[in-house]
Specification:
The structure holds two protein chains of two kinds. In chain A, 35% of the residues lie in helices and 24% in strands. Chain A is of the alpha/beta class. Chain A has a domain at 89-163. The longest helix of chain A has 18 residues, at 178-195. Chain A is globular and about 55 Å long. By secondary structure, chain B is of the alpha/beta class. Chain B starts with a strand and ends with a helix. Chain B folds into two domains: 5-99, STAS domain (Transcription Regulator spoIIAA, 2-Layer Sandwich), CATH 3.30.750; 127-377, no CATH class. The longest helix of chain B has 40 residues, at 204-243. The chains are: A alpha/beta, B alpha/beta. The interface between A and B is medium-sized, with 30 and 29 residues.
């Protein structure tokens, strides 16, 4: 495994305009290898805009975005495609192809990029489905036959299909019941441990932030106003952060030291 | 990057000694798969043993882990004592996770083959045809109920919606309808003149264009255009509303989807198609007249007087009376298909195709039935 802690994503002074409005105004952000970064901000603050800019769905006006050593703003098509293979994206609604069954959805990137034998492709797809906690039989189900939680899991399996180094999650626990959400958090930690992936997670789920994230970055007024561990967030004097982490929805036990709440101890 | 490799080590005794090296990852999986397959054929005699040495693997991911695990399982299933040794501790978690997979799919139900399958598919098609017919009557019935209840409570009628749909299916369709029917009229006239001229009967082209356009072609061409243009739009709109649970939302708020969505759409069609048929017929006659004049040398005055002799009010009425019935059938089929859309994008596409194909088919069938009927009553 490569060394932990070196940045895999470097966002520098990024400016993005969206429908003539300046949404991001000089964003600086790092995602380090092997960490789970929680990305929060008010609705409409531009979280999705930054995520979409990093994964190349929105053009950047100024600044640079470097992913896995490739500067995406200047890279050629071939270089960009090489990076595409090394990240996986889980969209908010799953974005599964509705005309393909779950298995074929997971197989899709494998088929396109790796050209393995059909038998091995299927086996890998089933292995991925099992890794995200689904039964092998889900392979044959179409997205319209699955529940919301299962759709997210299948979509996660598809995002993980090529064993990516970076995983982008857009509100992975929204629309899930607390039990499924907790299971998802657990799953994320297990995957981080087994696959050593770096995770960039946009979320509003305070429990999820607390349970899974190594670091949290906060976006407001087009800039990252704070980045650090949960403790840094809790101590921050920024008014928005205060109401976010000490508001009505925040539990008291957030103030209890994190140690021991994790599924497994991973760090010193 | 070091590609993953597999080497035979010194084999003590009857066993197979394999040593894996390098990157056992996704990008090398394609090369590694046959390497392992080669070794599968070896060691058939039971009681043999395989030692898989993973000490020198420098990088492992799910692909590599599964390749190793599937080989181990295959050897074990043949009664070979297969062992994995020296897996770097960093990858132990990953390997355990992959090993935990069961990989078993429940077997599918036995599928019919041969004559049985053919009969089954014929049977399924027939039941589908009848259930379609049933659904058309069902939605027709709901439409009548909705219409009557709106008649009793006129304030519940969605007049704005009707006007909106009228604008889209009628007003916006006028240019394309005029263009197409004009061309059809012109082509019929040109063909008529070309062939009638050989036996000096050019003037009868006026009779032909007049009767054909007013009785049959005007309404048929318009209906086919509308089925393709508005019928498909209705199916897609209702279908995507169905997909996003908007129809269910209406129902839970106490509204009847047929009354709110289907009735204004079908009424708009029933008003629009006769108007478009009239406009289309006139455009076709104009096209026919123009070609007769420019290509056939029939003076417009002669064309008009000949037209007066060859057609009467009945010819016109026969075409127009069909229009609202055709509109009803296009609307019913479009709305029925739209309401049957299931969750997937593919089903929306399939239903939209079905809607256009079925409504054009039914329009032509109904035109035939009308022809039989008019022949029987002697018009």
């Amino acid at each position: 495994m490569a060394t932990r802690g070196e940045p895999v994503i470097k966002v520098r002074d990024v400016v993005v305009d969206f429908y003539g409005r300046r949404v991001l105004n000089g964003v600086n952000l790092d995602l380090k290898r092997g960490e789970i970064l929680g990305f929060v901000g008010a609705s409409g603050a531009g979280k999705s805009v930054l995520t979409r800019s990093i994964i190349g769905l929105l053009p950047v006006k100024e600044g640079t975005i470097e992913v896995l050593g490739t500067e995406l703003t200047k890279a050629s098509m071939a270089e960009k495609q090489a990076v595409d293979r090394r990240w996986g994206v889980l969209f908010q609604q799953g974005a599964l192809f509705s005309s393909l069954n779950s298995g074929k959805n997971v197989e899709f990137p494998i088929r396109e990029y790796l050209r393995l034998s059909p038998k091995l492709t299927t086996e890998i797809a089933i292995a991925k489905l099992e890794m995200v906690g689904l039964k092998p039989d889900v392979y044959r189900n179409y997205p319209s036959e699955l529940s919301g939680g299962m759709i997210k899991r299948v979509a996660l399996a598809r995002a993980l299909a090529l064993d990516p180094e970076i995983l982008f999650l857009d509100e992975p626990t929204s629309g899930l019941d607390p039990i499924s959400a907790a299971e998802f958090d657990h799953l994320l930690l297990t995957l981080q441990e087994t696959l050593g992936i770096s995770v960039f997670m946009v979320t509003h789920d305070l429990d999820s932030l607390h349970r899974t994230c190594d670091r949290i970055a906060v976006l407001a007024d087009g800039k990252i106003i704070e980045a650090g561990t949960m403790d840094v967030m809790l101590e921050s004097q920024h008014p928005w952060l205060k109401s976010y982490f000490h508001g009505e929805r925040a539990h008291d036990d957030f103030h209890v030291p994190i140690k021991g709440r994790r599924v497994t101890e991973r760090r010193a | 990057m070091t590609a993953g490799t597999l080497q035979h080590g010194s084999s003590p005794g009857d066993g197979l000694d394999l040593r894996a090296e390098g990157h056992w990852t996704a990008e090398h999986a394609r090369a590694l798969e046959p390497l392992l397959a080669q070794n599968m054929t070896l060691g058939h005699e039971s009681g043999a043993r395989v030692v898989f040495d993973a000490t020198r693997i420098t990088k492992l991911d799910t692909y590599g882990a599964w390749l190793i695990e599937r080989s181990l399982r295959l050897w074990s299933s043949r009664g070979i004592d297969a062992r994995l040794v020296g897996l770097p501790p960093t990858y132990r978690n990953l390997f355990e996770k992959v090993r935990g997979g069961r990989q078993q799919l429940t077997p599918l139900k036995h599928k019919q083959t041969g004559i049985g399958a053919t009969l089954e598919s014929v049977g399924r098609t027939m039941t589908a045809v009848f259930s379609d017919l049933f659904t058309i009557f069902q939605i027709g019935g709901q439409l009548v109920v909705a219409f009557l209840s709106v008649c009793l409570n006129p304030w519940r009628f969605r007049f704005t919606s009707l006007v909106n749909h009228l604008e889209r299916v009628c007003w916006h369709a006028v240019p394309i309808i005029i263009l197409i029917t004009f061309l059809i009229g012109a082509i019929i006239a040109q063909q008529g003149i070309f062939h009638f001229r050989t036996f000096g009967a050019d003037i009868y082209v006026v009779d032909m264009v007049g009767v054909l356009v007013l009785r049959e072609l005007g309404v048929l061409i318009v209906c086919i255009m509308i089925a393709g243009r508005s019928g498909s739009a209705y199916t897609a709109e209702l279908g995507s509303m169905k997909m996003r649970e908007e129809v269910d939302a209406l129902r839970t708020m106490g509204f009847d989807p047929v009354e709110v969505l289907v009735l204004p759409r079908i009424l708009a069609l029933i008003i629009a198609v006769p108007i478009l048929t009239f406009i289309g017929s006139m455009a076709a006659l104009y096209g026919g007249g123009l070609v007769s004049w420019l290509y056939g040398g029939i003076d417009p005055k002669i064309f008009m007087s000949r037209l007066h002799e060859s057609i009467n009010m009945k010819t016109f009425a026969v075409g127009m009376i069909k229009a609202p019935f055709m509109a009803l059938i296009i609307g019913l089929v479009a709305c029925m298909e739209g309401m049957q859309v299931k969750g997937s994008a593919e089903s929306l596409g399939a239903k939209t195709t079905d809607s256009v194909v079925k409504s054009i088919f039914l329009v032509i069938v109904i035109d035939g039935l009308f022809a039989v009927f008019f022949a029987a009553v002697g018009i």
